[in-house]
Amino acid sequence: MSDHPNSYESQPPSPEQGATMKSKSKPVLLGIAAVAVVALIAGGSFAFFSGYNPFGDPKPNYAQTPSQSDVMDFSGLSADMHLSGAPLTASAEAGETSPEILRFIGSTTSILTRVDDYDQPAWTVSVPHQDIDTGKTEPLDEALDPDASDDTSDDEEKLAGTPTACRVSGGAVQCGDRAVALSDGSVTTAESKADVDPDPASSRVPLDIDDAGAVTGPDDQTYDGLNLAPEAHASMIAGPQVGETGPWVVSDGQTLAAVDSDSVLWTQDLDPSAAEVTGLGDKRVTPSWTAVDGVLIIGTSGGVKGLDLSTGDQLWAVSAPADGFAVAGSQLRIQHEGAVSSFDFTDSSDDDSVTADKGFDESISALPAPKLPSEDDIRNAKLEVPPACADLTMAEGAKQAFADGKTAEGDYGSSIAINDVTTSVATPKPMVAIDFVCYPGGNWVTDSVGVYDQKLNLVTSIEPWSEDSDFQQLADFNRSIVSAVDLTGPYMTATVSNIAVYGDEDYNAAERTGEVELRFAWAKGGYEPQDVLFTVGGETVRVPEVEEVQKFVDAAAKGDDGTAGAMATDEVMRDLDTVIGDASANPPLTYRNLALQDGTEVDTCELIGVVGEEYGDYTMSNGVGLMEGIGGFGADAFKAGDVICGLKGPGETIDPDDEYSWYAAHLLLKGNEAGAVKVYSVSSYTG
User: Is the pTM of this model over 0.90?
Assistant: First the structure.
């Protein structure tokens, strides 16, 4: 377990393909490569995307016990992983193949895995939760002390943030601003965010619970004897009706009740495990319970059962250890540790209950699980550390020896500590990601991530603060902290906090309020940057591509104000030709012919960092300062999350190693999630 308060345990990777089929009379064992996962708290989901029923006749009978049909083997999954039935809107055309999605929700991320009609995995993608509070930066001595905290606290085991709502749109699953292609799992940025249900735990039903726990119906009637925890209740329309008269089911994780518009139909106390297995009691999560054909399906740690909606009587039960479950189409899926068992409602049992058979036959060999070093081995290994971290700490030699996760102290007390370890066997090849705390001495400390193969050879490094980083010109990453790393399939996500932005103070111990999610995709034997998403001042921001900002500069220089005006405020376009200084000059001096003359190039763009004083001196993250103080006309409103671009005039050379190299002109842009260009200030040195 990490000592870092902003980090979490390793994320679940993608299961690799492979299956061994058995006869229909016994469950089918699917051999899938082992998966490494984090503590997963709420339930995960599986769903069909269209009305097409691949199982055909006979139709499912939800009032009778389903029979077991197969078992998928996820033998590397963590014991506290949960599967959930959070719904996905169906919109695929009936003629398309109906994919199925298994969704596992963890402490900081959801994992979507598509399985085909033969229950073989096709792809796996991770979707980080929204609104994760990474907490405060830990003190330097704690960050460098591997023995500071070895225990996992209760808080670390709980759900962090809000699981992102996912919806099907055409040929993709859209989760927040990510679009995951149904065909191959490739991830792209969606044009707009998917609608998010503000109350995911409850369908739109006319029930309310006041502060005292009293349940109120659509006509403000109360239900005598029914009292629920107001902050934990979840409710659902129980059946196909529009919901005006009920019945409705409602629960707070301790009590389960069915009501209609007039009265309580029945109540019963829930097994204490029902809240966790079904996803009740946490309003950020859509429960896995399902009401279909007059049957309410709900789960506990001992299995899943079907209740008569009108009476609450038990109709059937599937006895099986359960960490999570999901119902979709004719299938009930129950997950426990490394097994996901399927039960088919089209093949009903005459018994009132059945007991699940894990179906693992030792005579049939599953795919061997690739071996990775243990965390203890990693913390006591000789490792090639990321290059910028080695330079910063003046580490000598090709490899550094670690003992209990820390190198021996060098000059000035410098050292390198292993903060967190993330492993994955479902990446393009087995990988280990190590978050290092790099301490050169004094009051400076920053994080680097090294990605290693099975033999702990360094494959690639993630060091956004280094001079050679692809992200170096996007923000002030110095002294940044890696809050989380996820390795899933061909994708890697690194969440980084403690980034200096406008409004922060300019001294080492000052609070740094910016965060960023760096996304990578595996290509050519390494991880290449795919997306950068900042969170600043409560808003999400992408820095526009330099090429997009260049389109504004070129249009303004050529007098194409129609094109330029679509990428700038009205104030900028109005004032571009305002005469500056001597009006008798020929041509007159204006911001257009001074800062945006033909041949001007956009050299770099980044978030506005720390500004000592309004219109004061400013140095870009590449080390080149502004000749004119930051600002200009229209700059009165700049705020955290806005973007600054340095301009290079015709024939000018910008050299970060030359102390006399300056940006004579710059632009300020409004920050936005789409990374769209919206210039609100043009400034230039006037001599």
Answer: no
